[in-house]
Please model this.
Amino acid sequence: MCVQAGKATLAGMKWIMCGALGLAFSAGALAADAYPSKPITLVVPFSAGGPTDVVSRALGQAMSKDLGQSVVVENKLGAGGTVAAAFVARAQPDGYTILIHHNGMATAPALYKKLSYSPMKDFEYIGQVADVPMTLLGRKDLPPANAAELIKYVSQNKEKVSLANAGLGAVSQLCGLLFEEAVKVKMTSIPYQGTGPALTALLGGQVDLLCDQTTSTLPHINANRVKLYGVTTPSRIKALPNAPTLQEGGLKGFSMKVWHGIYAPKGTPPEVTARLTRALQQALKDPAVAKRLDDLGAEVVPVDKQTPEGLRTWLKAESDKWQPLLKTMKVEAD
Model:
């Protein structure tokens, strides 16, 4: 509130200052109302056609309907998603450059000694998107017929068994580490430059095992090109109703899913992040998005997770879960 000063000259200055402040607040409100006035770039840390990219494109298209501007997907690869995350952390905090990322936001601090950003401090949170189950696959001619037989097989063959992944920090690597921890066996880890090459190696019989998202593996499972040993969720999934869980196969307590969240650079105005959250929530109500995710075996998260606080809380919980485990297992970049 503006209060008139006792002296005329001071009073005049006060009224001028108050008027200027009022104009500034009005300009800020108008800027927020005008957002977005140009296309928004959604940065994806992984390659085009990969699991996160597929989810991102479906989501971006639906968000653009609510925002009234295009949401353009930009794939920025490198270092397990840290190149993309660092890029967005340094971007102008105006809501026109945002990030979608998966579990890697929680694991990066343990995997990379010289991380140039803090997942918990250098971003504003928009909300969670979807959860994606994972599947443990074997090459078509791998001898074990089910998870119980596989556990026995890897225990007998140990490092002779090759376990592919999509590179350091990829969810396929994390799932493989959990599997090794669960069976108490160290296998031969073979990293590839992405999910596509890892799957190609499995399909070609060049590696024995791969654990990856249903968004990538479902077509090969349904075409009977690989051997499915189980899903990584506690319960069976709608996309593969006849597939047992790894817990059913004898790995009690084994549970892992891929989760996705959307982030903006630190300092992005609250009005802008709120607008993005609203667009995210509207997109996740879109029947076309729901069907696309359902076809991929993914599940839209509950509404209370489609919020800044929902994502913040989940990221903290996942960081507390994974970082000690990775440090104990001494898994990190060279």
Notes: The chain is about 45% helix and 20% strand. The first strand starts at residue 40 and ends at 44. The mean pLDDT is 89. The domain at 133-231 is CATH 3.40.190.10 (D-Maltodextrin-Binding Protein; domain 2).
